[in-house]
Amino acid sequence: MRQLFRPLLAFFCALSLSSIVSAQSEQRPQILVETTKGNFIIELFNETPVHRDNYLKLVRQHAFDGVQFHRVIKDFMIQAGNLKTRGLSREKSLPGDSDEATIKAEIMPEKFVHVRGYIGAAREGDDTNPEKKSSFSQFYIVTGKYYTDMDLDEMEAGRSWKYTPEQREAYKLQGGAAHLDGGYTVFGRLLDGWGTVDKIQRVETDDNNRPLKNVIIKRMRLYTPKK
Hints:
By secondary structure, this protein is an alpha+beta fold. The chain has helices at 2-25, 49-60, 149-156, 165-173, 194-201; strands at 30-35, 38-44, 69-73, 77-80, 102-103, 118-121, 134-135, 139-142, 186-192, 217-223. Belongs to the cyclophilin-type PPIase family.
């Protein structure tokens, strides 16, 4: 009996260790974003590995440090990541971004939609970008508006997929930007710092949705949650 018990014990220990390693490997990386309006924390989805790895690389390179939130639309989204805005004074025009590098789309609305707080990759329009490739650095955080079931029914018209009950509930209770679903890659979400995001979305802007006073990312770095 004792001889049988030892192999079983070893098997269950190995199984338990394997489960722990698997769970750890599935943990989503987190990033602390420090801005002139306060801080917030985001996480990147492992289900969109191209975007995850690209943004982790940019964070490690400090590519976002000093970059501005150059496009802000209240009750829709706040956008940053144009690396040419680093050190740009408010008196100078925004640099064009049509020559930026791109990465392949990872659009999966069956998993991720534009609910309030979710993060998407900006991109050029369909006329010049039919493959919906993402900007390699520009991103937006959704603030959005609330939806009814009737609104979502209209959004679904002509699409090859339907909202899940959970997605519908999130849009009704939290809001978002459902009209973007299926057109842009959603690759992360806000975990903490809604107060900061709300401060940014409420800043005064010009006719091009550019803040009248620069809102700057002071630093982005990998974040390890406290246990």
